[in-house]
Write a structure and sequence with these properties.
eight-stranded antiparallel sheet, Haemolymph_juvenile_hormone-bd, 6 helices, about 250 residues, two-stranded parallel sheet, alpha+beta, binds 2-acetamido-2-deoxy-beta-D-glucopyranose, Bactericidal permeability-increasing protein, domain 1
Length: about 250
């Protein structure tokens, strides 16, 4: 019965998706930029400002999910290790307050370089630490909270053109990615159950080493960020042709 319901739901979604493909249109407050405009970054910035009031709730016709809070899938930060740290129920606050620091586009070679800065992100989640350390086995969960300033993402994208229904579309792939964080402060609550003194000491230790920890987590952070960005960008460029997104 459950499987039947699932299959029906999947079919309905597929039917809806093929419908949507032909009926999607850009929101009226978006003005496509001129591909050959030397100040194209200004035009892109102006469009972001036009979008901004809607970013908290998301913009379905541009495949942008709600950005404040932004809910992302559970993430294990160290698959290989004996002691696994996993975060779930990840809610990111203030993600809609980003600024586009740099935007270079070359639509002849289909290259984009951009830098996005989030002045402040607050990330709340539920952590789980489980595994074995020496002879001690543990499995602890609790609320995690963190504030991060100046989270900066530098991204280089490379597009491959393809033709669909006689129109050019682009499939984007990651060329380069780099992320940096300014100041961070995190708190993992109830890390050692009722032993608040050990929990406090551990949290102090984590915060004293936060830059090193975040540096070690770069591959995980970059994976989450690029999955998120490419999820949006590739849906956008698959549903809309280059001609719909840019004027020339
Ligand atoms: C993007 O950056 C790379 C080097 O990181 C450079 O080779 C390329 O020309 C840049 N592309 C644009 C469109 O600025
Ligand atoms: C994050 O910032 C908020 C607002 O200033 C504050 O209430 C909260 O305690 C901070 N959390 C951490 C882990 O620093
Ligand atoms: C990432 O950016 C930082 C700051 O701009 C820089 O110091 C570092 O070399 C960059 N790392 C890579 C792998 O590009
Ligand atoms: C924590 O302390 C409370 C009250 O002192 C007690 O009811 C609870 O069982 C304790 N939990 C653990 C995991 O020790
Ligand atoms: C785009 O820019 C080019 C050169 O800057 C100009 O010739 C063309 O008319 C512009 N197209 C539109 C639709 O504004």
């Amino acid at each position: 019965m459950r499987y039947y319901a699932l299959i029906t739901a999947a079919c309905l979604c597929l039917a809806a998706a093929s419908d949507i493909k032909s009926s999607y249109s850009l929101p009226s407050y978006i003005s496509p930029c001129n591909k050959t405009d030397p100040n194209i970054h200004k035009c892109v910035e102006a469009n972001i400002e036009a979008l901004r009031p809607n970013l908290k709730e998301g913009v379905p016709s541009l495949f942008i999910p709600a950005l404040d809070p932004l809910v992302i899938p559970p993430t294990c930060v160290n698959e290989e290790d004996q002691v696994k740290v996993t975060f779930k129920d990840i809610h990111i606050y203030h993600a809609s307050d980003f600024a586009l620091d740099q935007f270079d586009i070359d639509l002849v070679n289909h290259e984009v370089n951009l830098t996005i800065v989030f002045p402040l992100l607050r990330i709340k989640s539920t952590y789980n630490v489980n595994g074995k350390f020496l002879v001690v086995t543990f499995d602890e969960s609790g609320p995690a909270d963190g504030n991060y300033t100046n989270f900066r993402v530098f991204l280089g994208l490379k597009g491959s053109p393809y033709i669909e229904n006689g129109e050019q579309h682009l499939k984007w792939e990651k060329e380069t990615i780099n992320t940096t964080v300014g100041e961070s402060h995190v708190v993992l609550d109830k890390l050692f159950g009722n032993h608040t003194d050990i929990t406090d000491k551990t949290n102090n230790l984590i915060n004293e080493n936060i830059q090193v920890i975040i540096n070690d987590l770069q591959p995980v952070i970059q994976g989450v960020v690029s999955d998120f960005i490419f999820g949006i960008v590739n849906k956008l460029f698959s549903y809309y042709s280059v001609k719909q997104l840019f004027v020339s």
